Amino acid sequence: AYLDLKELKDILHLDGSTHLNIFFANSSDENVAGVSTWPWDKEALTHLGGIVLNPSVYGTFGHTDTMVHEIGHSLGLYHVFRGISEVDSCNDACLETEPSLETGDLCADTNPTPKYKGCGDPDPVNETCGPQHFVNTPFTNFMSYADDSCTNSFTMNQNARMHCYLDLVYHSWQPAAKPPPVAMAPQVVEQHHNSITLEWFPPISGQFFEREVGSVCDKCTEGRVLLQYASNSSSPLPCEPSGHWSPREAEGPPDVEQACESSVHTWSPTAGTEQGVVGLSECPPNGCMLQLEFQHPVVPDSLSMWVTFCSPEETALPAIHDILLLTVNGNNISLGPSNVFCDTPLTLRLDVQEEVYGVQIYTMEHHLEIDATLLASKPDSVLCKHCKPLRYRLLRQPPFTHAPHGLLLNEPIRRFTDREVAPRVTYTYQIQTLSSQSESEPSSPLVHELGAPYCGDGRIQSSKGEECDDMNFVNGDGCSSQCKKEPFFNCVEEPSMCYYYDGDGVCEDFERETGVRDCGLYTPSGFLDQWASSVDVSHDEKPYCSGEVAAGYPAATKTCQSKVFDLSDGVSQYAWFPCDADPSVLKYATFWLKAHFARPMVAAAAIIHLAADGTELVEQKQCNITVQLVDTKDGVHSLGEWRLSCRTNPLVIPVRHDLSVAFYHTKAVLVMFTCKFVAISGVGLRSFQSFDPITISGCQSNEIYN
Fold first, then answer.
1. Is 280's pLDDT higher than 70?
2. Residue range 643-678, pLDDT digits in tens
3. Using one digit for the tens of pLDDT, what is the confidence trace for 286-345?
4. Pure H helices in 156-231
5. Do 592 and 676 contact (CB within 8 A), yes or no?
6. Could you confirm whether the keyword Cell wall biogenesis/degradation appears in this record (predicted)?
7. Strand 130-132 to strand 125-127: parallel, antiparallel, or no bridges (unpaired)?
């Protein structure tokens, strides 16, 4: 008999909220040395978290550092080869070409490396995405797969990542630790001829009270309001074996990566329903139901719900049929129907005087997805009554006359007006967080002189990196709290007035490269784009999925669809997809589109414009395409395999020419894929506008003008 890891941990049921559990269990797969729970997993602080090590491998030659490696995973570290050997395509968002905090293992002090078990740099390789030579690789790093005779270290960036997760996720493992610091420097929000007013953010962990083992103080916020995410869930609907879209996915804080896109990290009525019959099963007359319960019953002040996806095809409004508050006394309260927006949580103010322990949510929409639910108590909650508030100390150089070691602020306020200031004196301010036992590290410093400009004074200081200044610290109004322009906003004048420019019908200079709706597709200077004059496809059925629609200029203003259950008939008006393919062979079929161009040119890039990226609603597996160039002599040149995503649409694939052989003119682009929901609205060929290597090769040296 075999147990899976969840069954084993359920039987043992060892609490994981105050320490890291390490289990030893033989595995049916002898190649598995260990398995860890990531710090961002819902199970991280429960009995389902921790590390499982294979005792048949542990401690043997070559595996003495396995536990250190797995603890690294538990504290948020990826493999050092993630950016090379754990990517799926040449344009994978995690592909690492140089050390970076944003790609690969998210550490800027580990050089890119493939998976390699040797104690040295790997040999040069010639891969599909181009030749690569890896040097100074981190083979001595604990997060590599090198033999443990040479693994001996973590880097500074890796140490920082582990500290972040220890402080932000696993703080309950260290009850006697220092209070969390204020991460950012205080800000000047107002000044006069004789005073400077400062404000600062709460500690980085979001805590307002001291940590106490076994208490709820880490969930109490300003005003002694207790905030709780759902901790228990159920639904009469069936669940998928994988756990995707199960009620448990609606527990805990929001964890959907991208709002308004379907995600398996949510509850949905379609969970447990086979893909082919989604939409056929009906919800009961009162709606499909999800029940969520909270750990501590409270008299509520508000209820917030993250509904992160609603199918545009379902028009039954409102999306939430009813919300039922479950009270301790049994007098359940109906809140009635509610409309929702996928990019904004639904927040309902409650006028309820009874203790609530849970909610029941009803919907008639099959493709609605709920990510999380938050219950906030009324102020001065009994459960927060005995929590000790964190206090602040304001440090200043030169020091305050009456408080040379810093000004202790007894009230838990985050605002102070310094009236002990003089002109032409440079002041440095820092904030410390204080608990009854210890004090935090000081915040980053603010350096300011009375009368000097600051973000929020209505004047744009370009030398300080300011892009706008609207005299407030609100995000979302076009000018951020850091005086930076927000996406799709432009700001003019002082104080700044900001407007949303995308789609206003005016093509302004600053949006020529990105504003497709106002300016059309952008061609870089020095290049020429031509779109296919004719198209051949693997599956062509007029008028439903004719390849002809993919010829010519693409439908650039149409929204690219992702995570779809079906492509509506409207897509076939402006994009080709294999809609007539035999359903019985769809799983194994290879589809292709061949775009021909009227003027063969030396290619600089191939451009694929998508109407849908092939990701299905249920499986949510991203799709790759293989792209080849066909030259005028019918030679074929591979550009490799590329990941499709609506976030990088259009997909621009650079062409690398081998300078040791003759150049070729491209007459066609061949695109191949296996996903039935890929829809292509146009294929382009980018060439050099005034530079043709083949023509130049026929010139004499004295005939070339640079």
1. no
2. 898 888 899 999 988 777 888 999 999 999 998 889
3. 889 999 999 999 999 999 999 998 876 555 578 999 999 999 999 999 999 999 999 899
4. 156-168
5. no
6. no
7. antiparallel
* Calpha distance 15→47 (Å, rounded): 5
The residues, any chain, with a CB within 8 Å of residue 625's CB and separated by 6 or more, are 608, 641, 642, 644, 671, 672, 673, 678
Q: What are phi and psi of 499, to 5 degrees?
A: -140, 155
CA distance 271 to 110: 40
Predicted confidence band of residue 279 (pLDDT cuts 50, 70, 90): very low
428, 429, 434, 439 alpha-carbon torsion, rounded to 10° = -20
Q: Which residue has the tokens 């150089």?
A: 397
Q: How many CB atoms lie within 10 A of CB 216?
A: 17
Architecture of domain 225-382 in CATH? Answer: Sandwich (2.60)
Would residue 210 show up in a list of annotated catalytic residues for this protein?
no
CB-count burial class (<10 Å; 0-12, 13-18, 19+) for 562: buried
The three-class DSSP label of residue 316 is coil
- For residues 238 and 431, what is the distance between their CA atoms, to the nearest angstrom? 52
Among 307-311, 431-435, 608-612, the minimum mean pLDDT is found in 307-311
Domain 187-210+388-449 has CATH 2.60.40.10: yes
Task: Tell me which of 7, 30, 43, 70 is the catalytic residue.
Answer: 70
Percent of the chain that is helix, strand, coil (3-state, to 5): 10, 30, 60
Looking at this protein, which amino acid is placed at residue 277? Answer: V
Q: What value does the mean pLDDT take over residues 628-639?
A: 94
| Chain region(s) in the chain for CATH 2.60.120.260 | 225-382, 527-694
Structural tokens at position 361: 């949510």
**130 CB neighbour count, 10 Å cutoff:** 11
Extract the tokens encoding 585.
Answer: 């062979």
Beta strands in 252-399 (DSSP E): 288-298, 300-309, 320-327, 333-334, 346-349, 356-363, 369-377, 391-397
**Which numeric CATH code is attached to 527-694?**
2.60.120.260
Residue 199 has pLDDT above 70, yes or no: yes
Cα Rg of the chain (Å, integer): 30
Query: At 72, which helix (H) or strand (E)?
Result: helix 66-74
Amino acid 528 reads: L
User: 492: which strand partners?
Assistant: 497
Distance CA 609, CA 606 (A): 10
Q: Which of 40, 494, 97 is nearest to 253 (CA)?
A: 40
Q: Quick one: average pLDDT of 565-577?
A: 81
Q: What digits encode the pLDDT tens for the residues 375-426?
A: 999 999 999 999 999 999 999 999 999 999 999 998 878 999 999 999 999 9
